[in-house]
Amino acid sequence: MNWREAHTDPKSAPFTGWTRGHWEGVADEQIAAAWRYSSPGGARVRFPSEREQDDVDLLEGFARTFVLAALRLAGAQGNLGGAMAETAQRYARALDAGTDPASPERWPQLTNHGQATVEATAVVLGLHFSRPWVWETLPQRVRDNTAAWLGDCAQSFGADNNHVMFAATIQAFLASAGYAHDAPGIEAALARIEDWYVGDGWYSDGEGRRFDHYNAWTFHVYPFLILDLLGEADSTGRRQVYRDRLAAFVHGYSHLFGADGAPLIQGRSLIYRWGVAAPFWMALREGITVVPPGQTRRLASGMLKYFLDGGAASDGVLSLGWYGTNNSILQSYNSPGSPQWAAKGFLGLLLPPDHPAWTEPEQPLPVEQGDFTLPLAGPGWLAVGVRKTGTVRVLNAGTDGHPQKDSPLYRRLAFSTATVPWMGVGDGVRDNDIHVPSPGGDSRHRGLLGGSVRPGGGASTFALDANGRDVKVQSSFAVIDGVEVRAAKLTGVVGLTPAMSGYLCSANGTLRSRTETLAAEAGSAPGVSSSLLLLDSSAEAGARVVHGGSTILGTHSALPILEWLPLRCNELRALYLVGLDVSLTGLHEFASLLHWEWAPDGVQLRYGETQVVLPWQRKTPWAADAINQGVFRWEPPKK
């Protein structure tokens, strides 16, 4: 089926027009693309790329597309017509070629900390979803070879983050198939993720404060699949715990999608794209309707359209990037087959065609229903939606990323569905941040010391390493009528040149800029705009717009920045406004109605009849996390 020619249904899908037929057509196109680039036996897929691809990369190309094919098979109950009719047989042959010890297409061995184990998990998911049509039709020899290959991950070690789920899922599959398996290892993995659960349905991706989309495509997917494979009865109560967490998660997470279908541009592995639809489908599969079926389809279909219309899957092959190919958001572990983890976004095909997810009319997203500010205490985010623009952003008071990596995709004061962080490293420019550039190099964000969000606002405390100088930053914010009011107090800055910035805007044409002594604006018309206005400062400052190069959202980018000359004081206080799709004129109008007064513990605001307090963070509750985040480095005693 060609999804481009599928019949639209504006009655049941008033927002996207898309039906289940579109999803099946997209899946068919991507499965067919994988077949075109398969090895003779089908066990390896070499997607077009100028990059070198090793045996693990070729396994990745196969395994992740096998998940998609298995979901397609399961959704059609094995009854695929036309060119898809041989799907089960193709994958049966590929499994033989990949696991036969004498095969030239033999898959790499599973080892400690090996990427092959991640891909073996995808193979297992494919086998689980397509069990009646693939696994149960395999000759005993192929099943034994497959089990032997998978069994190598028993008692192996992976990264101490979401990867603990992978070996556990493999071992659970072996248990379901009657093979020897590592039962204690499965339980250890499920116990380990409890250490990372922080509430609101959110898990940190390992030690520290690592919150991102891995909650969507890993932590709220694998526990359910493991229990399915183990055949664990609901009476144990464990599944209900996961259901309750999933319900809390999707409620908040549904607020993080723009009206154009864009997910929040934050965190690593963004090339997995619509894989973030997985928990919404999983929720419906588990009988959780806190996000109604019609809203789930509107969210998922809108996101799939957003990427496909942008060119993310030319001729069925997913590119390494956001829309098309763009290296700026890639991680070291990405290869040409990596984007195929987007297959998890097709979990909805497991729901039968007569399920309300496919029959009920689409319902609007939260941002389409009205403006909102929603505190998500787990990750320490304040979600802000603006109905007029359809844009969603999060103000960050609790997300830090990898302990030893000062990543633009984590350590920023805010993120949005319409802007991307400045990805330059060491160039002295940082979006949505408070930092200290200097000729000797930009300061390094050493990790959050504490943070919290509250209705309409939040605060955080973090440390900077400014070329050997220790700088403490206290930040507080509130959102009033869609405008961000931010306050900052920096200690230890005498002689330094701090900077504060807003959102980086991108466009495929030249971006305009407007600069005043204490204000700056960048943007395009029509398109996203970013503005800054300094209201009060304990030292003299200036403003400018920095123009950058290509981002995942456009060929041009621009960023408004506030800057200070070398300070004669050791403490700097600043109060400023940040606008996303709010013009500089709009900020001036807002400022004319805003009154403020500094206090020892922060700033007191009055806006018309509205009274708001921007307090500094009064305590640093993450003492243990401070070590994990690299604020302090532990070194073994010298012998």
Description of the structure:
The chain is an alpha+beta fold and about 650 residues long. The chain has two domains: about 5-370, Glycosyltransferase, CATH 1.50.10.20; about 370-630, Beta-galactosidase, Chain A, domain 5. The protein is built from 16 helices and 22 strands. A hairpin with a 5-residue loop joins strand 15 (about 520-525) and strand 16.
- Pairing-aware structural class of the strands and helices? alpha+beta
Tally the beta strands. Answer: 22
Put simply, the count of helices is: 16
Low-confidence stretches: 627-639
The level 1 CATH classification of the largest domain is Mainly Alpha
Morphology call: globular
Rg over CA atoms, rounded to whole Å, is 25 Å
Side-by-side strand order of the widest sheet? 8-9-10-11-19-16-15-14
Roughly how much helix do the residues carry, as a percent range? 25-40%
Major beta-sheet overview: 8 strands, antiparallel
User: Which fold does the CATH topology of the largest domain refer to?
Assistant: Glycosyltransferase
Ends distance = 68 Å
> What is the annotated CATH architecture of the largest domain?
Alpha/alpha barrel
Structure keywords:
globular, five-stranded antiparallel sheet, Glycosyltransferase, 22% strand, single chain, 22 strands, eight-stranded antiparallel sheet, Beta-galactosidase, Chain A, domain 5
Which helices and strands appear, and what pairs or packs with what?
Layout (H helix, E strand, L loop, with lengths): L19 H17 L18 H21 L11 H13 L15 H15 L10 H12 L12 H13 L6 H10 L4 E3 L2 E2 L10 H6 L2 H9 L7 H16 L24 H8 L7 H18 L45 H4 L6 H4 L2 E5 L4 E6 L4 E6 L17 E3 L17 E2 L8 E11 L2 E10 L2 E12 L2 E9 L7 E3 L3 E3 L4 E5 L2 E5 L5 E9 L3 E8 L7 E9 L6 E10 L3 H9 L1 E6 L2 E6 L2 E6 L7 H6 L11
Antiparallel strand pairs: 1-2, 3-4, 4-5, 5-6, 7-12, 8-9, 9-10, 10-11, 11-19, 12-18, 13-18, 14-15, 15-16, 16-19, 17-18, 20-21, 21-22
